[in-house]
Amino acid sequence: MKVTHAIFSIALGITSVASALGCSQPASAEPQKAPRVVEIMVHGAFVPDKIAAVEGERLKLRLVRHDSGGCTKEIVFPSLGIRKELPTGQPVTIDLPELKAGELQFECGMGMIKGTIAVAPRK
Ligand SMILES: [Cu+2]
User: Cα of 76 to ligand 1 centre, how many Å?
Assistant: First the structure.
């Protein structure tokens, strides 16, 4: 009898743990789409240097620099006030804010190498 009771308690315990885990997912009021990951290779240039996007989209840029020249050691988004160092061989991610329609420029720290994110207006 005692054993039966113990087993029942354990079973009950497992059930409540399982249901607690099931509820641990945060209930978001407005489900946001995960940002789109765009890989950019940096090797004396940004490859690709033209990226197409749509208004309201969120991008996560993943940059890997392969060269070690001074020019590409930084990436700058002048209009967003973003400046990031690009250590050679180390992936760097940049989360961009929701994109506005138009052309978003990015460049190296000296403004010599450039790239563009062309953001098409949403219909
Ligand atoms: Cu440069």
Answer: 10
Query: pLDDT (tens digit, 9 = 90+) per residue, 6-15?
Result: 444 444 444 4
Q: How far is the CA of 102 from the centre of ligand 1 (A)?
A: 24
> If you search the block for the tokens 């006030």, which residue do you land on?
81
Question: Ligand 1: distance of its center to the CA of 84 in Å?
Answer: 13
pTM (2 decimals)? 0.73
Distance (angstroms) between ligand 1 centre and the Cα of 41 equals 15
Q: Domains in the chain: how many in total?
A: 1
Q: Is residue 57 part of a domain?
A: yes
CATH number where 82 lies: 2.60.40.420
Q: 98: which DSSP letter? A: S
Its domain, for residue 94, covers: 36-120
99 assigned to some structural domain? yes
CA–centroid distance, residue 25 to ligand 1 (Å): 45
How far is CA 57 from its chain centroid? 12
Q: Which residues are registered as beta bridge partners of 106?
A: 115
Token output for 121? 């207006």
Q: Is residue 84 part of a domain?
A: yes
Q: For position 35, what pLDDT does the model report?
A: 97
